[in-house]
Amino acid sequence: MNVRLLIPSTLVLAPLAALGIGVSEAQAILLVGNTRLSEDGNRGFNVVGFDEDTGVFLGEFIAAGSGGLSNPDDLTFGPDGNLYISSGDTLENSAILRFDGFTGEFIDIFATSDTLRRPYGNAFGPDGNLYVSSFLSDEILRFNGTTGEFIDVFATGNGLAGGLNGPNDLLFAPDGSLLVTTQGSVATNGVANFPGLPSQILKFDLATGMSTVFADQPVPTPESFGFVSFLGLALGGDGNLYTSDFANGIRVYDLAGTLLETRSTNFTGTN
After folding, report:
1. What 3-state DSSP class applies to 66?
2. Do 102 and 143 share a structural domain?
3. How far apart are CA 178 and CA 236, in angstroms?
4. Burial, 110: exposed, middle or buried (Cβ in 10 Å; 0-12, 13-18, 19+)?
5. pTM for the complete prediction?
6. Can you give the pLDDT at residue 227?
7. Residue that is last in its domain, among 61, 87, 112
8. Strands 201-204 and 211-215, how do they pair?
């Protein structure tokens, strides 16, 4: 399951027994990746767990620095039951790290490449391959889902509206297409610039690599000060697509790309 919370955190569901807590495995926890380090340097850059129903903090699942874990972003349980984490923010430390899905123990550096820079979304496709968004190179990279071997650059940005500009989360739709949120940024030498391009949701055909705009930048919510930045993607039990906005709110779309609802989170704390 691959779900993103509004940054600075990401989350997935996992059995409570994974934290060594003596409860029914039917219960679940929220695994949250802390993408920011505290000012004293003693907290953050780790993965922690919360009871899904009560919100009670359950403890640390993966320690900061484990296997080189830094700036953890997307958390994805793979077909093998292990946890794949987007980690790092430079060319030197950016990678997909693999951890035991039950114990949280580091297994290996599963995937990396010469151009992977600040990985955000990662998702296993219907073809069995792992797709990773590289935010600071405006690319989606494709890796063998079993070996982690780099295959190719599946898509790259062009600095134009409707392009892969600041790719963030990835999600495979029921029809097998790849949905991608973009923040409207253009990376230059590892720095994200915001030239006024729209934040959008793109839809890629895996067979051709061609993309269309699934959802254009919506009208900003009153609490967002005119700012929109699509981040996380998740399919709901109702069959609709839920996406988070860094500025404020959750938007709900049907799978044709029609906006159905906007839910305020008041993330900006304006009222």
Report:
1. helix
2. no
3. 16
4. buried
5. 0.88
6. 83
7. 112
8. antiparallel
Spans in the chain with pLDDT lower than 70: 1-28, 36-43, 266-271
Is the Cβ–Cβ distance between 77 and 87 less than 8 Å? Answer: no
- Residue 140 sits in a domain of what CATH number? 2.120.10.30
The CB density around residue 201, as the number of other CB atoms within 10 Å, is: 24
DSSP 173-221: -TTSPEEEEE-S-EEETTEEE--SPPP-EEEE-TTT--EEEEEPPPPPP
Token pair of 238 as six digits: 């109702």
For 89, the domain range is: 1-112
Q: How far apart are CA 8 and CA 6, in angstroms?
A: 6
Is residue 221 within 8 A of residue 247, CB to CB? The reply is: yes
Cα separation, 186 vs 174, in Å, equals 29
Is 68 strand, coil or helix? helix
Look up residue 44 and give its two tokens: 């953050």
53 and 186 assigned to the same domain: no
SS3 122: strand
CA-to-CA dists, residue 190 to 109, 111, 166, angstroms: 22, 19, 11
Q: How many CB atoms lie within 10 A of CB 183?
A: 21
What is the total count of domains within the chain? 2
Name the burial class of residue 208, with classes exposed (0-12), middle (13-18) and buried (19+) by CB atoms within 10 angstroms of its CB: exposed
- From 50, 80, 112, the end of a domain falls on 112
Tens digits of residue pLDDT in 204-259: 999 999 999 999 999 888 777 778 899 999 999 999 999 999 877 899 999 999 99
